[in-house]
């Protein structure tokens, strides 16, 4: 397909104001897409080059992009930078300059969707000396053939800043409408908030099929292709595979123990909530693979985990869900998450690191065992199998400590035990619930003693003044609109950070180093950054406020911790959750 058609659809969707209108435009477009193009199109629609489970990165900083624009359009780097400063948007800069230039030169060739995605993909394989020049050349090659509007979207895609407004909700519904819409005869009125399918039950079945397929594959591009080529039967036949990471199930927050019971039912399982990081451990054809909660593969960073999972878990194939907790090898005391976070990043001296900062694996769920998917089986049955197949050895691999109870005081006692042991709190889990990858369905809830908190992404910041002038010191926070995928502002935080590296915690210096490469726009002291860094923010109360686009603001926000390793901007707190928290806090 010509890239131009995709660009026209971007514009069309962007100009639509209502969710249903956007869904309709997208579904019509998907309907007309060839099977050979559909995967590229669905990725590009989300501003992606690779599905989110694939950890290849294009590794393109804004400096490199300004160079590419300068090269292809025949300007100096300085001229491009000046324009960028003036307009604040490199996409627009490229579009304007392309318009001027294209008046004198001719188009060389038409760009196809696959040209665009494959050039950008090629960049991820380039490393080392000369790679910058080759990346610049790949972008410049696209820009040379691009029309002005195409150029704008190419640059935005390269910078991961597409902003067309298609989130998971819209995409899922558009796939249903495109490929199964005729079956359920959807009545669509753009003025309405929701649609009325002729048969609501069948319609919901299709929505569920698309959603479950997405939870397993973690990639709407693959889901759309299967829906188009094989229909619902293809989607429902999908199964987990050991060796292929699957989204982890997420948990909701309960206010206290009584509320936790109310939400998951009695009796339920109560487990220690360990303060480490999530590990999804696979065994597939004799090999152990370790993934983080963001599904990045970290097997080579954890040789000791590979060893003891191999020798202490029975079965030819399996997928374990677990929490890895660091402990001090001398005192044998458990350590907070921060002290072992470096093990995830470090790719050298891993043997040494595993001796200095060893981890214990606390297994709490089993998704797959000996070629059988277990996610539809009740939690208690999965736990039973775990008890049979894991040979527990403390400080190597153990099962999460658990009691099954229907009694408030027994649960309270267990909660106190968890806190005394230095754990974060407890998890309450419904004994009969299935495992729903990727969703926060409330089959499990957590109880923690800390104030309420939200996981938010940083979208902007401000340079400090005086002795803090080299640092970014105030951070703009956003939650997520799950329909459009947009990040909507909900406040600012400047407390909870440390000035000196010698103090425990996250320093302004660290924050500045993390955010500086993500800056996309700078005006005076204020910068806008790519939404990558996720933080857990505690607060006293949520208030209604016109100051932020979400319509809410946080009272006394404070950094609880950096979530960089564990949480991707795709699964931060949603506006819906904020609204729910706002209303529960009022009814209390
Ligand atoms: P939170 O990160 O506060 O949303 O809490 C959920 C996280 O707690 C999970 O993603 C796990 O990484 C971690 N966790 C620790 N212990 C358990 C447990 N027993 N069951 C489930 N999750 C646990």
Low-confidence stretches: none
Name of the CATH architecture of the domain at 252-447 = 2-Layer Sandwich
**Biggest sheet character:** 7 strands, antiparallel
The number of E-state strands comes to 22
Helix- and strand-based class? alpha+beta
Average pLDDT confidence is: 90
Radius of gyration: 25 Å
Which fold name is given in CATH as the topology of the domain at 252-447? Answer: D-amino Acid Aminotransferase, Chain A, domain 1
Helix fraction, binned, reads 25-40%
Distinct ligands, ions and cofactors found in the model: adenosine monophosphate
Principal-axis shape equals globular
Give the DSSP E fraction (strand runs of 2 or more residues). 15-25%
Task: Write down the CATH class of the domain at 252-447.
Answer: Alpha Beta
Distance between the termini: 55 Å
User: Count of DSSP helices?
Assistant: 20
* Fourth-level CATH superfamily of the domain at 252-447: DNA ligase/mRNA capping enzyme
Please summarize what this structure is.
Helix content is 40%, strand content 20%. The chain is α+β, with helices and mostly antiparallel strands.
Describe the structure.
- With 588 residues, the protein is an alpha+beta fold.
- Among the domains are: 252-447, DNA ligase/mRNA capping enzyme (D-amino Acid Aminotransferase, Chain A, domain 1, 2-Layer Sandwich), CATH 3.30.470.30; 454-584, OB fold (Dihydrolipoamide Acetyltransferase, E2P), CATH 2.40.50.
- Helix content is 40%, strand content 20%.
- Strands 14, 15, 16, 17, 18, 19 and 22 form a seven-stranded antiparallel beta sheet that branches. Strands 5, 6, 7, 8, 9 and 10 form a six-stranded mixed beta sheet that branches. A five-stranded mixed beta sheet has the order 3-13-12-4-11, with helices on one face.
- Helix 11 (200-217) crosses helix 12.
- It is globular, with a radius of gyration of 25 Å.
- The protein starts with a helix and ends with a helix.
């Amino acid at each position: 397909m010509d890239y131009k058609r995709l660009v026209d659809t971007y514009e069309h969707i962007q100009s639509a104001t209502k969710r249903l209108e956007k869904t309709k435009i997208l579904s019509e477009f998907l309907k007309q897409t060839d099977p050979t193009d559909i995967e590229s199109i669905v990725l590009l629609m989300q501003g992606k080059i690779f599905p989110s489970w694939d950890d290849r990165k294009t590794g393109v900083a804004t400096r490199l992009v300004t160079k590419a624009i300068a090269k292809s359009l025949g300007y100096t780097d300085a001229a491009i930078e000046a324009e960028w400063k003036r307009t604040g948007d490199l996409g627009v800069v490229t579009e304007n300059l392309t318009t001027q230039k294209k008046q004198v030169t001719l188009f060389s060739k038409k760009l196809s969707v696959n040209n665009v995605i494959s050039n950008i993909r090629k960049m991820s394989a380039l490393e080392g000396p000369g790679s910058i020049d080759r990346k610049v050349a790949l972008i410049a090659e696209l820009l040379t053939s691009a029309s002005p509007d195409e150029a704008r979207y190419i640059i935005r895609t390269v910078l991961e800043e597409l902003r067309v407004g298609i989130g998971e909700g819209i995409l899922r519904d558009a796939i249903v409408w495109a490929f199964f819409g005729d079956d359920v005869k959807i009545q669509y009125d753009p003025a309405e908030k929701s649609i009325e399918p002729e048969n609501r039950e069948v319609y919901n079945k299709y929505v569920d099929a698309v959603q479950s397929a997405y939870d397993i594959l973690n990639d709407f591009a693959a889901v759309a292709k299967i829906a188009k080529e094989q229909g619902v039967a293809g989607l429902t036949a999908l199964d987990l595979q050991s060796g292929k990471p699957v989204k982890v199930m997420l948990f909701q927050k309960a206010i206290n123990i009584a509320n936790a019971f109310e939400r998951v039912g009695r009796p339920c399982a109560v487990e220690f909530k360990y303060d480490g990081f999530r590990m999804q451990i696979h065994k597939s054809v004799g090999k152990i693979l370790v993934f983080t909660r963001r599904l990045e593969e970290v097997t080579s960073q954890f040789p000791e985990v590979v060893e003891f999972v191999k020798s202490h878990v029975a079965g030819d194939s399996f997928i374990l869900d677990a929490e890895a907790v660091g402990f001090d090898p001398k005192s044998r005391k458990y350590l907070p998450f921060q002290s072992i976070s470096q093990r995830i990043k470090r790719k050298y001296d891993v043997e040494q690191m595993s001796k200095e900062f060893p981890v214990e694996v606390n297994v709490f769920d089993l998704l797959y065992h000996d070629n059988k998917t277990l996610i539809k089986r009740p939690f208690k049955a999965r736990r039973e199998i775990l008890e049979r197949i894991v040979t527990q050895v403390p400080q190597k691999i153990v099962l999460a400590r658990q009691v099954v109870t229907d009694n408030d005081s027994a649960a309270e006692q267990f909660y106190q035990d968890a806190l005394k042991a230095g754990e974060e709190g407890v998890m309450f889990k419904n004994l009969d619930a299935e495992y729903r990858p990727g969703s926060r369905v409330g089959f499990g809830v957590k109880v923690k003693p800390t104030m309420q908190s939200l996981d938010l992404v940083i979208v902007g910041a401000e340079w400090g003044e005086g002795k803090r002038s080299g640092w970014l010191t105030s951070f703009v926070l956003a939650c997520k609109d799950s329909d459009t995928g947009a990040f909507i502002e909900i406040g600012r935080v400047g407390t909870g950070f440390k000035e000196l590296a010698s103090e425990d915690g996250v320093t302004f210096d660290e924050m500045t180093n993390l955010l500086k490469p993500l800056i996309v726009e700078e005006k005076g002291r204020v910068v806008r950054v790519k939404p990558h860094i996720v933080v857990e923010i505690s607060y006293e109360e949520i208030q209604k406020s016109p100051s932020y686009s979400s319509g809410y603001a946080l009272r006394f926000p404070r950094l609880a911790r950096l979530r960089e390793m564990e949480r991707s901007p795709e699964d931060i707190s949603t506006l819906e959750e904020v609204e729910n928290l706002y209303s529960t806090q009022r009814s209390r």
